[in-house]
Amino acid sequence: MAWYSDRVKVKESTNVDKFNKIWKPGENPVWAGIYRCQSCGYEDVINRECTKLPPCSNCEKKNHKNNNWKLLVRAEDAE
Ligand SMILES: [Zn+2]
């Protein structure tokens, strides 16, 4: 569960496809933001320089393999 306090600067998206897409570690993420592991729920920040999504570090700790990610919060691009 991600948290925020500024309701003006964080808004709900109507583009559900963007947030329903499943991403695998190694894939090039199109959007910077917070991604959520679909195996354990761990959330991690992916910046604009990232070209390969990492494996979930929380799953690695527990020896779970083959996690997937979903975009949870997308960072706004520069205007
Ligand atoms: Zn995980």
Structure described in brief:
This protein has 79 residues and is an alpha+beta fold. It has helices at 16-20, 57-61; strands at residues 33-37, 43-46, 69-74. The protein has one domain (19-74).
List keywords for this structure.
13% helix, 2 helices, 79 residues, 3 strands, three-stranded antiparallel beta sheet, binds zinc ion, alpha+beta
Task: Give the beta-strand count.
Answer: 3
Number of domains: 1
Separation of the first and last Cα atoms: 28 Å
The helix/strand series, from N terminus to C terminus, equals HEEHE
**Which small compounds were modeled alongside the protein?**
zinc ion
Major sheet description? 3 strands, antiparallel
> What is the helix tally?
2
Oligomer: single chain
What is the C-alpha radius of gyration, as a whole number of Å? Answer: 13 Å
**Mean pLDDT rating:** 94
Low-confidence stretches: none
Strand order, largest beta sheet: 2-1-3
Helix percent reads 10-25%
Question: How does this structure look, described?
Answer:
This protein has 79 residues and is an alpha+beta fold. It has one domain. It is 13% helix and 19% strand. The chain has two helices and three strands, in the order H-E-E-H-E. A three-stranded antiparallel β-sheet has the order 2-1-3. The chain is globular, with a radius of gyration of 13 Å. The termini are far apart. The mean pLDDT is 94. The chain binds zinc ion (ZN).
